[in-house]
Amino acid sequence: MPVIAQALDGYRALGDRPGEAGALVELAIARGMTSDFRGAQELLGQALDGYRALGDRSGEAYALRILGIARGRVGDFTGARELLTEALTLYRALGERLGEALTRNDLGRAATGSGDHPEAVRILRAALDSHRRLDHRVGQATALLYLGGALRRAGDLAGAAAALREGLALSREIRNRSGETMVLNELGAVRLLSGDVEGALAAHRAALALADQIVSPFDRALSVAGSGRCALARGHRREGTAQLRTALGILRGIDAAEAAEVAADLAALS
Fold first, then answer.
1. Which CATH number is 180-270 given?
2. How does 221-256 read in b/e, with b if 16+ C-beta sit within 10 Å?
3. Taking burial as the number of CB atoms within 10 A of a residue's CB, which of 7, 88, 101, 185 is the most buried?
């Protein structure tokens, strides 16, 4: 992150506005990787203004997409869908097929967050087909992750497990540790709902080890919360409650949308 910040200062000193806008987006992405979603949004707003002032429509679409992702991470799914729809419209007009497919991934995730699970599944299946036609493996892995989450919430546990198993194998094949961490946590949730408590716990523990390696407080919190739910399923109320409280503290500290779900779990125990 310090290197990107130095590059940003350099672009500003040179008056290089396209370079400045690009560096702002990259710095925002780096902030998001450390779970600083609020800070990321501020930088992305600056980048979006810069791209619009330059008349750079491709840059504008990219900034809109990343800003939409950041909005969704803090629970503003309505705002996320509006920004992502705007980005999708731009990508279509520009004929940028990969940008369109990636934006569909994010729109599907935002639809899931809004509770619109059938729409999320529809969007994500279309996104997955697009990524396969483009042979874009990172996009495929992400689409499979989000599709698994949407199917789980729609009640299709078998479909969710199949998508996640494929996504896990692909994430490992392309050595995407962040994606692997997220898939493992989602797979843990599916296994728990399917009655496989030990399998769920194993998935969350593996995700926790990876989350600590990549230094992701967000993924660490989801791993701890998942382990807490497993502890409760095994009848270990004190242990499970403590883990959920730890996860909630992390999620609230980074303004993550998932804090509401963990808070609801804790409220149900009181």
1. 1.25.40.10
2. bbbbbbbbbbbbeeeeeeebbebbebbbebbeebeb
3. 185
